[in-house]
Structure formats: structure tokens, C-alpha cells
Amino acid sequence: MNTRPFRNIQRKKTKKITVGKVEIGGDAPISVQSMTNTLTTNIKKTVKQINQLTEAGADIVRVSCPDKDSCLALKKIAQEVDVPIVADIHFHYKRAIEAAESGAHCLRINPGNIGSKEKVKEVLKAAKNNNCSIRIGVNAGSLEKKILEKYKEPCPEALVESAMNNIKILEDEDFFNFKISVKSSDIFLTTKAYRFLSSKCDYPLHLGITEAGSLITGSVKSSLGIGMLLMEGIGDTIRVSLSENPVEEVKIGYEILKSLNLRHRGINIIACPSCARQAFPVIDTVKILEEKLSHIKESITLSIIGCVVNGPGEASQTQIGLTGGGKDSHMMYLSGLPHHKVASGKIIEEVVKLVEKKSEEIRNS
Questions:
Q1: Is the dihedral of CA 325, 327, 333, 338 positive or negative?
Q2: Which phi and psi (to 5°) does residue 45 adopt?
């Protein structure tokens, strides 16, 4: 249960910026982001989804602003939610200005399609006037024409050159409240680009594998790409991009951070895959517990192991543990030590009771 030295990742110290009330970079926790998939003009549905994402743990939520009505809708949306809103802007710089004036806390602009340097300057002016940060969002699928002509195809050097060109524009305008992303759907291209960019600047980096795919495929790709960079100390905020309910993006984001001991929220269940030695139905038990304990926000480690081969060892490292035993009698562990026995039919009830009690203790401590 103790954090061991070999489990600690040394993060690169970047500049600290703010997105609304959330700090990014420096010594701030790595934030988890997601994006709505509702029509922004449908204010009721968009607010509902943002609140669902906030409940799941999202620190920042991005909202698409493809037209003027969507940008104007941000004014009401921002008033009804308790999380910073990032306006996703493409193609028309005036949408960025409208979003900033409507209460967006950050503008995500894509250098490949936002327009000329003069238009970017107009966006920066609106951002300054409205205390709005910027994300320079470079994407392999929409690089500037000149850069593509130079490199012939998307590559790490092309993504980083695009980012550095736009960093200079912001710096020349004395604008420093920004973060950067250099995304691709290819893990190798993405990770190389981020490593290269990290070596060239100290601005906070927004990590992600763009258009990663469905729940399983996208989670694996994102875990590999984002995880590798985080292990190297690179990255200040993350978004897992999935073709799925965006709440799942937040859940997977936290699982990545929990796995690397970078941030903890909710139950961390350590469970065996089950085999012929299992003394109770491990797989079904874990599924039910995940659902029944999904409301827990406090960081609690729970081990659910089907037999005594690894059960006692895992339980010694978790706050609450269950190890399968013989004759319908299984051992419950508290703080790593054997505590009492429980019958198979009482496992769910007992574990939920113990976790909720632990959660209350943490809240009141």
C-alpha cells in the first residue's frame, strides 16, 4: 500500500497555465479531459452530458463550435455547468472570437485550418480580452499545405514544425497562456512527435491518440501511446478519444493515470482472471462490484482473488481484500491483514459495506 520509489515517475517541469479554474502544467495534477458529442445548440442535452462527464471525473470538457449558433449557446451552457469549457474551433476564426466572448475558458484552434496569421492574431486578442487560454491543436490529418508540401507526408518533424511556427505567433503577440498537442491516429508517429516537441519547448502538452477507435481498440491504443509518454515524464493533460459514450473516455483516462501511480480516483480493483482453483465466481463478482461501487470517488484499493495462491499476497498490498477459501468460507482482509470470513452468498454485500465504510472514513479524515 506504500508508494515505492520505483513506482514514481519524474514529470518534466513545464510552464503552468490555467483553463478556467483548472491549472495545467508545472506541479499541477495531470488533468483528464473529454468532449461532448451532442449538438451544441441543444443546450439541455449538452449540459446534461457535461454534468455526466463531470460526475465521472472530467476536469475539463471540450464542446464543438461549428457555427455561430453553437458559439452563442456556450453562454448559457457555461452558466449551468461546474467545469471549464473548451470551444473546439475549425476553419473560421470568427467562431473562436464568438466563443471567447460567450464564456469559453479555452479555445482549441487547429493551425492547419484556422486561416492566416492575421486571423490568429484576432483570435488571440479576443482570448486576452476574455481571460481565455488557447490549445494549439496540431493534427496529422490537417497539416498546413506548405508543411505537407515540404515533408510530403505527416511525420514527427512536420507536426512539430507546425507547432513551433504557431508557438512563435503566440509568443510574438505576448500570449503565453497556452498548451499544445501534436496528435495522430498512429501511435509511433504521435509518441515521436511529442518527444521531439517536449525537447524543444517547456509549454504544457495535451496528450492523446486522435481517432483511436472503438472502446477496446481505442483504449488499447490510447493506453499504449499516452502511457509511454507519461512514463517518460511527458504530458500535463490527457484525452482518450473513443468512438463511444464520452463517459468511457474519462474512465479509461483515470485507469491510465491510476496504473502509472500518477493520479487516483475511485476504486482500483485488483482481480485474478479466474481458473479451476477459484472458490467463488470471480468474473461475475468483479462485474457486479464495479457497478455497485461506481459512485465511490475516494481512492481505495480492493483485491478480489479466487484462491490462496496469490490472494493473501495481493491482499497484503490493498486496503480491502478478499481471498477465496474452501467450504464456502472466504477470508476478508483489512489494511493488509486477515480480519474475518464471509460466505459466498454474502460477498457482494460485505465488500460493498466495507468499501463504503472506508470511503466515509476517508471523507471525514
A1: negative
A2: -70, -35
